[in-house]
Structures are given as structure tokens and as C-alpha cells.
Amino acid sequence: MDLQQRINAFVKLGAFLNQFQKTESIKHDHIEANDLFYDGFKHQIKLAEESNGWFTKSNISFSLINWSNALTRSNISKWIGKYNFNNETTKKVAIIMAGNIPLVGFHDFLCVLITGHSVLVKQSSNDKHLLPFLAKYLEVVEPGFKNKITFAEEKLTNFEAVIATGSDNTARYFEYYFKDKPAIIRKNRNSVAVLTGNESDEQLKDLSDDIFRYYGLGCRNVSKLFVPKDYNFDAFFKAIYKWHSIINESKYANNYDYNKAVYLMSEFAMLENGFLMIKEDKSYASPIATLFYEYYTTSEELKQKLNSNNSNIQCIVSEEFSKDEIEFGNTQNPQLWDYADNVDTIEFLLRI
Which Pfam families match (predicted)? Predict the structure, then answer.
């Protein structure tokens, strides 16, 4: 199986995923192996919803459409065009996946297979229904993937490199356990937004997508704002009202009520609008239904602060603040070449 065959298979997978829209699924006759997989994948989506209350149909569909948009021939060609794929030997690479958002480990899975390696996947129990089914689809449309994809339920064995994602605590375990193997170990990260007070209403509405999509559970979700002294939050609260119905979803509402009670009993100062609380706090990771904020004096001072805390930050949402900034509303639409923690996964896989 050469590189072009692998690309072709993922392009077919992208076309397959394109059928599962946000509002309703629409079956297309031209999709390869559709009669075998279309109804089965609808069932897997239903199982994913039932087994994890955070995986709503809307959030699952959002993830699927994003991957469909990413897995086009032009996108994949643009992504891999700068690499030399003349690696002669292939390895078995283990991936330990998080389970905070649907298909959160798919990019690692894609990277391993597109580089010609075999993959050994250890899934989170929170996200175990979607990927194995999509792996079967790949094996049918490209038989060369057979025997190159394995899912492990128990302890991982017989692998030569590892990509592991977890919390700061589990990362310490990973670093010890995998100290003798080539590894990418990812820890907790959060995303921030830098506001000036001059943002348009549209930019602030887009920012609300960065905050609330996936209930704020992803590392690319904005969990903290940096605002200038005397910033007026009125325009911000008005703009984010587009997400007000999120409070009608029970798991989110339970977290909102719990955290609000904690803040009130602890007499913490905070502002809230009935579905989001904002609290002045120096931490980067805020609880569900809470957004932290911190004041800054000058842009240069803030740049130095963020640079010194770089290991805690996944994305910076801003306008004309940072060379690596992301536009408002785009944190949950990463491109294939947007690597987690800014570690080039393809480069790592081509040199192991």
C-alpha cells in the first residue's frame, strides 16, 4: 500500500462522513461501501450519545463535518506536501486517546496511518463507539489497512513508539512508563482570548462558539479572557446570548448550579447571566459553565506573560495581537497542519 492509496482511503472516509449533517443525515448513493456502513454508523452515533451525556448529536455531528471538510484530496495534499515520505521501515505506534470530545484522537490516528505505520489504539471509555467503526470502513475501502489497525482493551504491548494524551497527573505516569520509547506526551492545556474592548458584536458572537462548543471540554475551547483595565462586560454578555439555551441541557445545568453554589458559599466575586459565570482568576483551566478573566495593562506585558506560560496554552484568540493567533470563532475548526501542543506529529512519525 503506497501513500496515494492511503490518501485515497481517507478521502473516501471524508466523503462518507459528509453524509452526517448537523440537522439530519442524508444518504448518498455514490459513496463507496455505503450500503454496508451507513445505517451501522447511524447506530454508532446513537450509542455514543447514549453512553456519554456530553456527546450530543449536535456535538458529534459538528466533529464529523469538521473531519469531512478536512479529509479532502486538496487539504491532505497541502498538509503532507512538505514532508519526505521515503521511510523504508514501518513501526507499530500506540495511541492513548483522551475522551473529552468526539473523535478527539482521530488526528493522531490519521497521522500514524498516513505515514505508513501500524496503529495500536487505547481508547477512552468516554469515546469508544465511533472510531472502531470508521476503522472498519477504512479496511473495506482499502484492504491494505487490514492488520494495520488494532484496538486494545487491556494493557498495551508490542509497540515501538507512543502518542499519549492525558492530564498533568497521567502525563507523569506516561513519561515514566514510556521512558524507553520514542514518545509524544501531552498534558493539560487551555485556550485564551485577548480582548481590547474594540471587538465587534460579530467577533464576540464568534467568540461564544469558542467558549461553549463541546460545553467547553476541549483544550481548544477558550476558558479564560484577558481584558484591559476597566473593561465593560456588557457587550460580551449581550453577544454570547446566542448560546443561552445551553442551560436547558441537564449535565451543563447541573455543573452551573453546583459551581454557582460553591462561589456563593465561598463569597467569591463573580458575574453571571443565567447560563455562564465569569470570575477573576489567575488560573487557565476554568470549570464547566465558568469563564475566568484577568486584567492586563499593556499588550507587551501580556505577551511576555503568555510566552512564559506557553506550556499551559493551546490557542490564543485575538486580533493583531500574536503571530500565532486564531480568529474569533475558529478554535474548533483546526486544519490538518494545526498540531496539538505545536508538536509536529508527522515529523515525529517519519523519524522514529
Answer: LuxC
What pLDDT shows up at residue 161?
97
- Same domain, yes or no: 205 and 182: no
Domain annotation covers residue 326: no
In a domain, 345, yes or no: no
Q: Taking residues 83-88, what's their average pLDDT?
A: 84
Shared-domain flag, residues 150 and 201: no
Strands 271-272 and 222-228: unpaired
The pLDDT assigned to 21 comes to 80
Does residue 71 lie within any of the structural domains? Answer: yes
CATH code of residue 214: 3.40.309.10
C-beta neighbour count of 342 within 10 angstroms: 10
**Beta carbons of 100 and 217 less than 8 angstroms apart:** yes
CATH number for 33: 3.40.605.10
Question: 175-179 contacts: CB < 8 A, separation 24 or more?
Answer: none
- What is the pLDDT, as a whole number, of residue 333? 95
For the chain, what percent of residues have pLDDT higher than 90? 93
The residue range of the domain holding 18 is 3-187
**How many domains does the chain contain in total?**
2
- Residue 23 scores a pLDDT above 80: no
pTM above 0.85, yes or no: yes
